[in-house]
Every structure is written in structure tokens, then in C-alpha cells.
UniProtKB/TrEMBL annotation:
Coiled-coil residues: none
Protein name: Sigma-54 dependent transcriptional regulator
The organism of origin for this protein: Pendulispora rubella
Database matches in InterPro entries: AAA+_ATPase, AAA_lid_NorR, CheY-like_superfamily, P-loop_NTPase, Sig_transdc_resp-reg_receiver, Sigma_54_int, Sigma_54_int_dom_CS
Keyword entries, A-Z: ATP-binding, Nucleotide-binding, Phosphoprotein, Transcription, Transcription regulation
Residues covered by the Sigma-54 factor interaction domain: 145-369
Pfam families according to UniProt: AAA_lid_14, Response_reg, Sigma54_activat
Residues with PTM 4-aspartylphosphate: D52
PANTHER family xrefs: TRANSCRIPTIONAL REGULATORY PROTEIN
SUPFAM superfamilies documented for this protein: CheY-like (SSF52172), P-loop containing nucleoside triphosphate hydrolases (SSF52540)
Domain Response regulatory: 2-120
Length: 461
């Protein structure tokens, strides 16, 4: 079992490592910064992380530790113990972001640290055993999660780990990336795959109808309620309730959903007695919920309650090496055998896919209509009813084209183009745009704020 200790103070870090090594059968890794920690996380699967929230003590506004907590949780739902000083606001915020426990620097000793770690080690060992047993009884639904890329391998690992828990899960990712497939995998890998899987699109129904769908209603509860109706909270039993497009849930119902998650009880419309909710809630959205919270469009307490476990589904641009496998998968599902030439696959691999996997699947479906068996570059180019695929030019060619421009700030021009395109591909989701760019979300926020100011737009509008 691997433990990661992250602290910029070498003496404190060494003290923590000394304490951790009192436990048997542990492999301990050390990092003195967020960058070092990220490098280790790329190379190793970490079972438990101990993270100092002030990774740069000289800068009181530094939030690298809190940022690292969120990154680690997003990678594989890794249990995290944070360390900080008494009264630190960041400790409370880290707990809301999913940290398991905290250690005060003033109480750094074996008596306080070891009991927490022993409990987490036992929990992680049990999770691994459960995953192994379930995978033997219920083979993982890998047929729907196609691709050998590192991003997909990480996604499959995260899905296995979050499926062990019965706590709420928030699945994020751009439109068409496959969020529902991830949710179905969580259900299939979970403790009750034989129980119902029910899904509700929160943006597809009026508020009154959504409430009745979720909670159910008694006969005579409102005009037109001529019979008693069971809601999703009851019908799902011990299964999975999938709330798609959770960002569109009306604020009044957000408060009621929060109460269900906190109390595990609900009351059908018109009923006098509360009932027990036995299932699990998994929510999904392509929207930036943090931004919605800041604008008062989504409840902050519900966001933190749903975001206990987060799963981020990558865009197709983040996993281009999966495109040949996806093409072969969709081609095999056609009524007639469909074969792509190597050049045709290369064209699809290099194309831009703003609609992600859904767009690629639809293209393969359409190609199957216009050919007997073989897909060539000429067929792709002549496909009616759509514009030509946009192929990314080689990087060196793009750079030379920019350098040939007249007297302009070419560095700023490229930065603007990169951020603007990332925001477009992610449908203005700053978190997703930052992931595409390989930078922290704050970098994108600063750029957007400067751009809005330069254009005379009030950032609060």
C-alpha cells in the first residue's frame, strides 16, 4: 500500500514519514511541492495522501495545498488527511472538498496520526478485496468504456473505487463525452447491480412534474392526482438514481434533494409520513457548478454534498489515441460489416470533435448508410449533409504561420487563441478548459476576467 506525504517543510515532512513508517507493509513517497506531488501521482497509484494545506508558508494566500486536495480527489477518489494550524479556514474547506480527516500541526505525534492511518489502511484493504470479489461475480462493463489511453485507464480505476462506496457521486465532463456510461458502470460495479437503475433528466420537465417524479404523490395531492403514484426515491429501492443535468434542478427542489441526502428520508407530495430512501444518488452535469454557486444559481451546500466523490469524464480531445478503438467498436455494431482504411482512421484521429464521442458515433452510423463495407478518405469527404471535418494542422506549421504575422504580440495572440478555443470546446466550463490547457483553473479565471474587463463587460453580469 502506497502513502504520499506532501509538506514543504522538510523537518515536518521527515517527522510525518518517521511516524508513517511505524505501520507495516507501507511504501512511502515524499513531495515538497504541488508539482513534485503531481509528478509522483503520474507515476504511482497512491492509496492514502497526507497533504499540508500551506505548501508555501511564506505566502499566506497560497492555496497549493487545497488545490492539490482537489486534484488528488479527482484522480482516483484517494482518501486524504490534511494537516494545518488550529483555526485554519482551509481545513474546513478541504473537508468539504472530500478530505477524510485532518491533523493539527500542534498535535503532530504518533498518538494522533497512527489511529487515523490504521483506520484508512483497513478501509482501503477492504475496498480492494470488495473490488476483486465483485469483478469476479460481475465482470466490469468495459465494453462501454472504450480506449487504451491513460485518461481512460484512470477513469476505469476511479469508477471501480467510487463504486465501493454508497455516498453520492458527481460526474462531470463535456456534452457527448459519455457521462451516462460512467454512471452505469458505477451502478454495475456497485454493491447492488441487481437493483433498479433509474435516470431523470432534471432539465426536461417542469418543476412540479419533477417533484412528483422524484417524491411521488398521494391521491388527491393536487389537481389531476386521481391515483397514488410511487416516485423514483421509492422505485429505485437499493439501486442507483441518476440525476442528469443536475445544474438545471430548480432551487426549491435543490433544498429538498439536500434534505433527502442528509436524512435519507423523503415525503411524497400530500403524504403525512416520511419514508426511507435506500438507494444511491449519482448526479451528472456538463455545467461548471462552482460558477453556478457563485452566481446563486446552485446551492453551495448541495454542491458539497454531491461532490463528496467526483468523477471527471475526459473529452475526446484529451484521449485522441482512443479514436481508432472507438471507430472499430462503432463499426462492429453496424448491421453490415464496416471496414475503415488506415488513412480514413488517421483522418478521424486528427479531426476536431467538439461533440466528443457522441459526434464520432453518429458519424460512423451515417457512414454505414453510404457504403457497402469500406470507408475511405474520399467517402468521408463526400458525406452529404455535414461540413468537412476540421483537421488539426501540424504544430510547426501553425507556429510558422503565427510568426509571419505583422507587428503584434504573438505570445499574447497564441495565449488568447488557446484559452478561447479551450473555453469553446468545454462549453465555457472553466474547470474543463483548464484541464484541456494543462493549467490550474485560476489561470483560466484570471484570463477570462481580464478579457471581460478589456471588452468592457462586468464580470458579475
Amino acid at each position: 500500500m502506497r502513502i504520499l506525504v506532501v509538506d514543504d517543510d522538510r523537518a515536518t515532512r521527515r517527522q510525518l514519514v518517521y511516524i508513517v513508517k511505524e505501520l507495516p507493509d507501507l511504501e512511502v513517497h515524499e513531495a515538497g511541492s504541488q508539482a513534485e506531488a503531481n509528478a509522483l501521482l503520474e507515476r504511482h497509484t497512491i492509496d492514502i495522501a497526507l497533504i499540508d494545506l500551506r505548501l508555501n508558508a511564506a505566502d499566506p494566500d497560497n492555496r497549493d495545498g487545497l488545490s492539490l486536495v482537489r486534484e488528488v480527489r479527482a484522480r482516483a477518489a484517494t482518501p486524504i488527511v490534511v494537516s494545518g494550524s488550529d483555526g485554519m479556514h482551509d481545513v474546513r474547506e478541504a473537508m468539504r472538498f472530500g478530505a477524510h480527516d485532518y491533523i493539527l500541526k500542534e498535535e503532530l505525534s504518533s498518538d494522533f496520526v497512527l489511529p487515523i492511518l490504521k483506520s484508512l489502511c483497513s478501509q482501503r484493504q477492504l475496498e480492494k478485496e470488495v473490488i476483486t470479489l465483485r469483478s469476479k461475480r460481475y465482470p466490469p462493463p468495459t465494453d462501454s468504456l472504450i480506449g487504451p489511453s491513460a485518461a481512460m485507464q484512470r477513469l476505469r480505476e476511479i469508477l471501480q473505487r467510487v463504486s465501493v462506496s454508497d455516498r453520492p457521486v458527481l460526474v462531470t465532463g463535456p456534452t457527448g463525452s459519455g457521462k451516462e456510461l460512467a454512471v452505469r458502470a458505477i451502478h454495475a460495479l456497485g454493491g447492488h447491480p441487481d437493483q433498479p437503475f433509474l435516470d431523470l433528466n432534471c432539465g426536461a420537465f417542469p418543476e412540479s412534474l419533477i417533484e412528483s417524479q422524484l417524491f411521488g404523490h398521494e391521491r388527491g395531492a393536487f389537481t389531476g392526482a386521481d391515483r397514488k403514484q410511487e416516485g423514483f426515491f421509492a422505485a429505485v429501492r437499493q439501486g442507483t438514481l441518476f440525476l442528469d443535468e443536475i445544474a438545471e434542478l430548480p432551487l426549491e427542489l435543490q433544498a429538498k434533494l439536500l434534505r433527502v441526502l442528509e436524512t435519507r428520508t423523503y415525503r411524497p407530495v400530500g403524504a403525512s409520513q416520511a419514508r426511507t430512501f435506500e438507494g444511491r444518488v449519482v448526479a451528472a452535469t456538463h455545467a461548471d457548478l462552482e460558477e453556478r454557486v457563485a452566481k446563486g444559481q446552485f446551492r453551495e451546500d448541495l454542491f458539497y454534498r454531491l461532490n463528496v466523490l467526483e468523477v471527471t469524464v475526459p473529452s475526446l480531445d484529451e484521449r485522441r489515441e482512443d479514436i481508432p478503438s472507438l471507430v472499430a467498436h462503432f463499426a462492429a455494431k453496424q448491421p453490415r460489416p464496416l471496414e475503415f482504411t488506415a488513412t480514413a482512421v488517421e483522418i478521424l484521429t486528427n479531426a476536431s470533435w467538439p461533440g466528443n464521442v457522441r459526434q464520432l458515433r453518429n458519424l460512423v452510423d451515417r457512414l454505414a448508410v453510404f457504403t457497402e463495407s469500406r470507408v475511405t478518405p474520399e467517402l468521408i469527404a463526400s458525406l452529404p449533409g455535414r461540413s468537412k471535418l476540421k483537421e488539426a494542422a501540424p504544430l510547426s506549421e501553425l507556429v510558422r504561420a503565427v510568426l509571419r504575422l505583422p507587428d503584434v504580440d504573438k505570445m499574447q495572440l497564441m495565449t488568447n487563441a488557446l484559452v478561447d478555443e479551450a473555453m469553446r470546446l468545454s462549453e465555457n466550463n472553466k474547470t474543463a478548459a483548464a484541464r484541456l490547457l494543462g493549467v490550474h483553473r485560476k489561470v483560466v479565471e484570471r484570463y477570462v476576467s481580464r478579457a471581460e474587463y478589456a471588452n468592457g463587460v462586468d464580470a458579475d453580469d
